[in-house]
Design brief:
The complex is a heterodimer. By secondary structure, chain A is mainly alpha-helical. Chain A has one domain: Orthogonal Bundle (MetI-like fold). In chain A, about 75% of the residues lie in helices and about 0% in strands. Chain A has 14 helices and no strands. In chain A, helix 2 runs antiparallel to helix 12, helix 8 packs antiparallel against helix 9 and helix 11 runs antiparallel to helix 12. Chain A is globular and about 75 Å long. The C terminus of chain A is likely disordered. By secondary structure, chain B is an all-alpha fold. Chain B has 14 helices and no strands. In chain B, helix 6 runs antiparallel to helix 11 and helix 8 packs across helix 9. The chains are: A mainly alpha, B mainly alpha. The interface between A and B is large, with 59 and 65 residues. Chain A: It is a multi-pass membrane protein. Chain A: Belongs to the binding-protein-dependent transport system permease family. Chain A: It is found in: Cell membrane. Chain A: One of its GO terms (molecular function) is dipeptide transmembrane transporter activity. Chain A: One of its GO terms (cellular component) is plasma membrane.
Chain lengths: ~300, ~350
């Protein structure tokens, strides 16, 4: 399974892009010192300057190098992404798996909780909470995003856990008197790793986007640099109305690339899990089309003859 | 309940459902809807309670801070009614929690959401009421357009999965749905508003015209709303398309579709009545669930375009730390989303007879 995963072009591309940004986040400070860039330094000789040799991606209103900010921002955004996704996934597992495994009152209660969080519009809720906590650090932002963003995942895990619970091997182990805790961790959970992994990827991009959205609203640590705070600063200094596109385009593109990478990996995994989707490859489609055409041609010639 | 599991042919299921619906028509769907109604009532109560709890969990004394701020803004001591209202919403140190909760609920029952700090002493309910029609107009129109557009394109693409159109559209949409809403909005504003100058740069209507139902004013509303609406549709229809594409790809291979084709039914009929109708069902669940997300997304879009709706109101409230407005907006958005979900659920019962069967 693992080998065929990487043979899938989509997955491979996604993994490479994601790995690139993870490395950028991890090695950002090293890279910046090698390049001799500083995300916070103000180059007064180049204020709001378009891309040039000295500043490959141009500078901001404050004469800060956009490239340096993008590299530094990768660290902030990816940090929130990973922490937020980890917290959200963990809660989804803690709520969703027992909800599916136990059923009954426990299951119903947990499911009810999940449904409530599912219908609540999470973004406004996060705004309000974050609004009270104005000026908090990226850790707090990640925690808020994780705590309010687990419901969809819990619902998926519940459905899957329900199906695994009813399989023979789990039933058999239960008959043997295995404790529930052991059954959940050793028998049920390993069958859900695939879903958990894809949930984590979804949570990652969700958290990166949520952080950007919050930063855009001004609810973030103003001293921290993330792709979101970059876009927010650009918006606040009316970069749009002054045509400083190089300020807000790169961070947005980075978010989009991370999101696309995560989505591609998930698509590839879906295709492996659901062969019906995989069969829809270009080659097969062409073949079917040509068969159809041939059949149609036969039919029309037949009709003409008749 | 899987959406596709065990449906022999759509005609059979519909026919069966019609028969059983004739036998026990309203009772079953009635029970189902009552259950859902109960759920949404509890959800609404949770949202209201959350709104009560959040400020009281925060460090410090929010109501003291708000009263302090209000008195600074207005330059005089607050009226006793205003004090009662704020303590009710944000915490009264002299009362125990249960008493506060009762007072809070009583206050909400009178539609009293407190008074705005930044627009003192305008009641929050008035501000929210002024913004709501704009948001409903923008979100309502764009949600329907993107749902219909995305679903229809999804059928078209999924029907011929692997075609050139599919192999271009699908990766493109994947990319578009990974881009944050507000960034697309910023980009569109820069490109079409600033560079080409086709659309106004901010606002919801021409400020030189009085707000009315005159054609000139309505025209300016459309002109100002076009770009925000286009950006929302652009970033939202892709999700619908992808979901519908994958469901259609799966449905197209079902036996009943093959049978319908073999019977010689017209391709359009097979495509829409047989494949699409069944592929639609999960789409519909998604529609209900996405409403929350769309409202959230529209909040950001409104901010980019300074559109005079709820999102912009929330934004200015956040910036000015206008907590009464913040909470009022949250409550209103939540209740709207819950109501929309309830309506979507009711429609679902009508669309998928199996829901009635199972409840």
């Amino acid at each position: 399974m693992r080998a065929s995963l990487l043979r899938n072009g989509k997955v491979l591309f996604g993994v490479i892009v994601l790995a690139f940004f993870v490395l950028l986040a991890l090695l950002g400070p090293v890279l910046l010192s090698v390049l001799g860039l500083d995300a916070r330094a103000n180059d007064i000789s180049a204020i709001a300057a378009p891309p040039s040799a000295a500043h490959p991606l141009g500078t901001t209103q404050f004469g800060q190098d956009v490239l340096a900010q993008v590299i530094e921002g990768a660290r902030g955004s990816m940090f929130v992404g990973f922490l937020g996704a980890a917290i959200g996934t963990a809660i989804a597992i803690v709520v969703g798996v027992p909800a599916g495994y136990f059923g009954g009152t426990t299951g119903n209660l947990l499911n009810f909780l999940t449904n409530i969080f599912l219908v609540m519009p999470v973004l406004p809720l996060i705004f309000v909470v974050a609004g009270y906590l104005q000026g908090t650090g990226l850790v707090m932002i990640a925690i808020i995003i994780g705590v309010f963003g687990w419901a969809g995942g819990a619902r998926t895990l519940r459905a899957q856990a329900m199906s695994v619970r009813n399989r023979d091997f789990v039933q058999a182990m239960r008959m043997l008197g295995e404790p529930h805790r052991r059954l959940i961790f050793v028998e049920v959970l390993p069958h859900l790793y695939g879903w958990i992994a894809s949930m984590f990827l979804g949570g990652l991009i969700g958290a990166v986007m949520a952080e950007a959205g919050l930063a855009f609203l001004g609810v973030s640590d103003s001293s921290a640099i993330s792709w979101g705070t970059m876009i927010q600063a650009a918006q606040q200094q009316s970069a749009v109305l002054r045509g400083l596109w190089w300020w807000f385009v790169p961070p947005g593109l980075c978010i989009a690339l991370v999101g696309t990478a995560a989505a591609l990996i998930n698509f590839g995994v879906d295709e492996l899990a659901n062969p019906k989707l995989r069969a829809a490859s270009r080659r097969v489609a062409k073949r079917t089309a040509s068969v159809r055409r041939a059949a149609a041609a036969l039919e029309t010639t037949g009709a003409e003859r008749a | 309940m899987t959406a596709l599991g065990g449906a022999p042919t759509p005609t059979t299921t519909t026919a069966l459902a019609e028969v059983s619906a004739r036998r026990k028509p309203r009772r079953r769907s009635g029970v189902f809807l009552l259950k859902r109604l109960g759920f949404y009532l509890v959800a609404a109560w949770s949202a209201i309670t959350l709104n009560f709890v959040i400020p009281r969990l925060m460090p410090g004394d929010p109501s003291a801070a708000i009263i302090d701020q209000l008195e600074r803004v207005s330059g005089q001591a607050l009226a006793p009614e205003a004090l009662v209202s704020i303590r009710g919403l944000f915490g009264n140190p002299d009362q125990n929690l249960l008493e506060q909760y009762g007072g809070y609920l009583a206050q909400l029952a009178r539609f009293d959401l407190g008074v705005s700090i930044s627009n003192f002493p305008v009641p929050v309910a008035d501000l929210v009421g002024a913004g709501l029609p704009w948001t409903l107009l923008l979100v309502g129109t764009t949600t329907v357009i993107s749902f219909v557009l995305g679903t229809m394109l999804g059928v078209a693409v999924g029907w011929r999965a692997g075609s050139r159109f599919d192999s271009i559209m699908t990766p493109f949409i994947t990319f578009v749905s990974s881009v944050p809403y507000f960034w697309i909005a910023l980009l569109a504003l820069w490109l079409f508003g600033f560079v080409f100058g086709w659309f106004p740069l901010s606002g919801g209507y021409d400020p030189n015209l009085p707000i009315s139902l005159e054609p000139a004013f309505l025209l300016s509303v459309m002109q100002y709303g076009a770009l925000p609406a286009l950006t929302i549709v652009f970033s939202a229809f892709g999700g619908w398309m992808l979901g519908m594409r994958n469901m259609t790809v799966t449905t197209v291979r079902e036996d009943y579709v093959l049978l319908a084709q073999a019977k010689g039914l017209s391709p359009a009929r097979v495509r829409w009545r047989y494949a699409a109708r069944n592929a639609m069902l999960p789409q519909f669940t998604g529609f209900a669930m996405a409403l929350g997300g769309v409202v959230g997304g529209a909040l950001l879009t409104e901010i980019v375009f300074s559109y005079p709706g709820i999102g912009y109101l929330l934004f200015s409230a956040l910036q000015k730390r206008d907590y009464p407005v913040m909470q009022g907006v949250f409550l209103l958005v939540t209740l709207t989303v819950l109501l929309a979900n309830l309506i979507a659920d009711s429609l679902y019962v009508w669309l998928d007879p199996r829901v009635r069967e199972e409840s």
